[in-house]
Amino acid sequence: MAEQMDMQQIDGADVFRWFVSGAREVAAHMKYLNIINVFPVADGDTGTNLTATLRAMVEKPMQTPSFNKMLQQFSQSALESARGNSGIIFASYINGLAMESTPYDKVDVKEFATVASGAVRHLYNAVEYPREGTIMSVIRDWAEFLNRNTERFRGFPELFEAAYHVATEALEKTKTQLAVLRKNNVVDSGAAGFVRFLEGINRAFGEGRSQDVIEDFTPVTFVPDTEATEYRYCTEALLDTAANLVTNDVIASIKPILHPLGDSLIITPRDHRLKIHIHTNHPELVMSRLRPYGTILEQKADDMALQNRLRLLPKGGVGLITDSIADLPDSFLLEHAISVVPLGVIVQETPYLD
Question: What is the pTM for the complete model shown?
Fold first, then answer.
C-alpha cells in the first residue's frame, strides 16, 4: 500500500480504503440526500439507494493488492446490488473503471486519470438519454479535470483535493441545469452523493490534511414541489446470458424492445450479465421481453407513486401493508397509502414478482 502522505502510486489496498471511507461519508448524509431527491422522480430514496449500493461494494469483496482486480470485484458487487437510478449510474461508472484498468496492478496519477476519463465513455453508453445537471455530468467534469491536470500535482492527495473543488462547483451548477431543480432550488441528489463519496476519499488521505466540506443546507422540513410522473414503477433486473459474453449488438437489440415501455433506461454489461433499469408502468412486460435473452437472476419493481405519496404524508400514525394476493385496486392503494409486498411466482423455473 502506498504511503498516505506522499501517495504518488496506488494499488488495490489503497482503492479499497478509499471506497470504504467514501461509502461511510455517503451513509452519513443519507437522510439529506433522500430529502433533496426530486429528479428523475421525487421518491425520496437516492441516499438510501446509493448507501445500499456502496455498502454492498465494500462488504462483499475481498481485499487484493491489484488495482484492476480490486475494481473488478467492486464492479461485480455493484452491478449485482445496485439500486435506483443513481445507484445504477454510479455502478455503471465503476464498471467502466474496471474495464479501463485492465493493464494495471498499480497506477500513478496520470494512469489513474486516463482510467477515470476513459470510464466516462462506458457510463454514457449505458444510459439511453444522458441528462446535463445530474450525477453523470459531475462525474464527467471531475474526470476531465483529472485528465487535464495530472502534470500539475505530485501525488494523489493534491490532485484529488483540487478535483474535489471542481466537483463541488459542478454540483452547484446542477441547481440551474434542470427545471425541477430550479423549481425546488436544490442540487441534484445523485450528484451530491457522488461529491460526498469524493469527500470521503479525501478524508482517507489522512487526518493531517486540510479538508473543505460542503454543508447539508436544506432544512429537514423541505417539501419538494413534485411533478406527476408518467411511469409508476422503478423496475430493475439482473440478467444472465449464460456462456455468451454480452456484446454491443445484444445491447442494441434490447434497447428498442424496452424503450417503448418507459424512460430512464440504463443497460450496463459485465461479462455475461446485464443490469437493466427502467421506469415503467408494466414491469411484467419488461421481464417478458428480457426472458429470451437469458435467465433473470434478480428483479424488483418499486412503486414510485406510492413512495412519493408516503413521502408527503404527515410522519407517524399507522401504516398499512398487504400482499399481492389481496388484489386491491391501485386507486385504493394510493388513496390510503397501502404498501404491497409482491409474492413470488415461478414460471418455467424462473421466479417473477407477482
Answer: 0.86
